[in-house]
Amino acid sequence: MAKTNEPQEEVVQFYASSKRIHPKLAKGRFSNWRIIAVLMTQLVFYVLPWLQWNGRQAVLFDIAARKFYIFGITLLPSELIFLTGIMLVSAFGLFWWTTIAGRLWCGYACPQTVYTEIMLWFDHFFEGDRNKRMKLEKEGWTAHKIRVKAPKYLVILLFCFWTGFTFAGWFTPIRPQWLDLFAFGLSTTQWFAIGFYGFATWFMAHIMREQVCFYMCPYARFQSAMFDKDTLLVSYDAERGEPRGVRKKNQDNANLGDCINCTLCVQVCPTGIDIRNGLQYQCIGCGACIDACDEVMDKIGSPRGLVRYTTEAVLQHEYADSDIKKRLLRPRVVGYGMILFLVACGLVYGIFSRDLMNIDIIKDRGMMVRQNNEGLLENTYNLRLSNASEETLYLQAAVKGFDHIELTGLPPTLEIKAGDIINVPVQVATYPEYADKGSHPIEFEFRYHTEGNQEWRIIHENSNFIGE
After folding, report:
1. How high is the pLDDT of residue 308?
2. What per-residue confidence (pLDDT) applies to 208?
3. Judgement on whether residues 211 and 130 belong to the same structural domain of the protein
4. Minimal CA–CA distance to 357: which of 445, 429, 253?
5. Transmembrane stretches, by residue range (predicted)?
6. Residue 182 sits in the same domain as residue 271
7. Is the pLDDT of residue 2 over 60?
8. Quick check: is 391 in a domain?
9. Which residues contact 32 (CB under 8 A, 6 or more apart)?
């Protein structure tokens, strides 16, 4: 058979299914800190919606009523700039912290890794340690496997449902929602929020797990832009650890480094990487490999720190580990810190110095100008008054712009309850000789005080009067 020079067909796969990672349960100081961080973040998430403040839910983002409550602060739609400020503070805080200590946020507080860690706790509790889980995964669907996995899946589904229920409780009052759950009175929107976030928790934390960090999280991709040689990272000291080889406790062997190639650092890693291969974007900085390696070093009689939080500059002998704190005040850290501080100060000042009364003046376009029974030219306006305080406000209003001008439609003092948003139609009138054809600027003056503070605060709002 004659040989041909035709190119051979080659199949290239752009997707390869990943194997399930079964990390070994790490024990040590960083694992303990991680447990504390997981518990603290979940305490905030699950408990905060149940707290009460002045007879209402302490923290509630009530989209239906267009009011955001954060303890004693009420934010209205016209004040969404403050929510933008909160997001800016969070973003610059993350940049600042990443410059200092890498991906500690990912390892200790990111919702994805937090819920993945909780799912791993369920795995370990119901299925046993790493070897038992790997053996169970290879086993077919026998009665034994079903008996082990069924209660785990039930607990995971209940956990995801409760997570979705709590998520919905951040946006609708959670206590009435709890009663409606048993009375089958939840709305379609509530069921959607519960189902969506519950499903997302199950799919992302139980099914996808580390794949979210690998392929979906943008932070993993641009984090290196915020690193420098003084950033604290989980690092393997190759100079001390290489060459690798098995060695016993207190055994002198000049040809071997401290790494005995036990691979425990790989076995405990929740993303399944080998930290000895250097900095990798998959590393979430959780420190599990540090705990595993320190335990091995204790057993063989070598000092801890073969794998540790350190900087690239330390590994290059530019300074010692003890001098890391001195490198905190470097330009990048100071720059991010100053921006963070200024934005945070501006946000706090803006929230606590803002007017408690929000006023929108809307000109009635249905009737631009009319003549009333007294022969005065009259324009109609709609006042949208929002009380953003926790107390009743008392409001008085006046208008100026002509030698003779009248404001009608408001009582001498208008009482507005805490958190209320009301619409009040008012009329402004003047003599025809003062307002010829066209638009004339006028100014509303609003004076208000709270129930507990009798000092008047003044707001000026501009508008226009249409003459004929």
Report:
1. 96
2. 92
3. yes
4. 445
5. 30-48, 68-97, 153-172, 178-200, 333-352
6. no
7. no
8. yes
9. none
pLDDT tens by residue, 284-326: 999 999 999 999 999 988 999 999 999 999 999 999 998 998 8
188 & 251 share domain: no
The verdict on 267 and 148 lying in the same domain is no
Instruction: Look at residue 400 in the predicted model and tell me its pLDDT.
Output: 92
Torsion of CA 324, 108, 227, 288, to 10 degrees: 70
Give CA torsion, residues 400, 403, 407, 412, to 10 deg. Answer: 80
Residue 276: which domain range?
231-326
Judge contact between 198 and 164, C-beta under 8 A.
yes
* Per-residue pLDDT reduced to its tens digit, 208-223: 998 998 888 888 777 7
Residue 85 has pLDDT above 90, yes or no: no
pLDDT tier for residue 158 given thresholds of 50, 70 and 90: very high
Judge if 398 and 314 occupy the same domain: no
Does residue 336 belong to any structural domain of this protein?
no
Provide the phi-psi class of 397: left if phi over 0, else alpha when psi is between -120 and 50, else beta: beta
* pLDDT of 12 above 60: no
Q: Are residues 404 and 279 in the same domain?
A: no
Structural domains counted in the chain: 3
CB atoms within 10 A of CB 34: 23
Alpha carbon of 346 to those of 38, 66, 70, 330, 457: distances in Å?
A: 31, 24, 18, 24, 21
Threshold 0.85, pTM exceeds: no
State pLDDT tens for residues 28-37.
Answer: 999 999 999 9
How is residue 139 written in tokens? 């086993």
Supply the pLDDT for residue 227.
86
